[in-house]
Design brief:
With 250 residues, the chain is α/β, with parallel strands linked by helices. The protein has a single domain, classed as NAD(P)-binding Rossmann-like Domain (Rossmann fold), CATH 3.40.50. It contains seven helices and seven strands; from the N terminus they run E-H-E-E-H-E-H-E-H-E-H-H-E-H. A seven-stranded parallel sheet has the order 3-2-1-4-5-6-7, sandwiched between helices. Helix 1 crosses helix 6. 43% of the residues are buried. The model has no long low-confidence stretch (mean pLDDT 93).
Length: 250
């Protein structure tokens, strides 16, 4: 039975992905900053571990406690929406610490064991903002675009050792805690000068034509983990899939 470690499992994509793999008889290591034993149904194949992807000691402790890992899913992330002009650089650094450097740190931590076994899969969950530019998301997009380039390069670098690097790109999911995992409120990042520009954008987000469900992302992670075609990018959700097709058509 294979073992998967998923970051950011307290809610949203990570939690649903953990459920998805548990239902398919995998050993699941669900990690979260503040472990909640009630987050998932009790099972012999489930372990819940504390993990802060921005803390080197926390990463080292989690990797040691986890033991051999066949698949790493870097899902933990925080969002920020608003005018870049007024977004504090201190918060932008926190976004990058989780969304970019946290992914890199976790990846670096598991590569040695996968390289020695000459097998493994690393799945990085990014965003549909890597497919096309979105307004009022410049800092967040930058943190995710960095992982797009990182994963593409890594796929070549680690392919030599039969380690596969993949990207899952979710669309807009209204039910996730995208902007709740942050100390900066959206309303504080929309100054009066941007009000007319921002209003129709937020109106569209309030009634989107297509959206992404947590289950869409879990299924995309499953497909990425089990892919043997060499495919790098897996859009997740009806809106992300449609956007991906539009981009491909030019």
């Amino acid at each position: 039975m294979k073992t998967i470690l998923i970051t950011g499992c307290s809610s949203g994509y990570g939690l649903e992905s953990a459920r998805h793999f548990l239902s398919r008889d995998w050993n699941v290591i669900a990690t979260m900053r503040t472990p909640r034993e009630d987050a998932l149904p009790r099972a012999q194949s489930l372990r819940i571990l504390p993990l802060d992807v921005t803390d080197e000691k926390s990463i080292a402790a989690a990797i040691e406690a986890a033991g051999p890992i066949d698949v790493l899913v870097n899902n933990a992330g925080i969002g920020v929406v608003g005018a870049f002009e007024v977004t504090p650089l201190s918060h932008i650094r926190k976004v990058f610490e989780t969304n970019t450097f946290g992914v890199m740190a976790m990846t670096q931590a598991v590569i040695p064991q996968m390289r020695e076994r000459r097998s493994g899969v690393i799945v990085n969950v990014t965003s549909s903002t890597t497919l096309a530019p979105f307004p009022l998301a410049a800092a967040y997009t930058a943190s995710k675009q960095a992982i797009l380039g990182f994963t593409g390069s890594l796929a070549h670098e680690l392919g030599h050792f039969n380690i596969h690097a993949k990207l899952v790109e979710p669309g807009y999911a209204p039910t996730t805690r995208f902007t709740q995992n942050t100390e900066v409120r959206v309303e504080d990042l929309i100054p009066k000068a941007y009000a007319d520009f921002a209003a129709p954008i937020f109106a569209e987000f309030a009634r989107p034509a297509l959206t992404t469900k947590e289950s869409d992302v879990a299924e995309a992670v499953w497909l990425a983990v089990n892919d043997t075609s060499g495919k790098l990018r897996f859009p997740a959700g009806a809106d992300a899939v449609a956007l991906s097709r539009d981009v491909a058509r030019g």
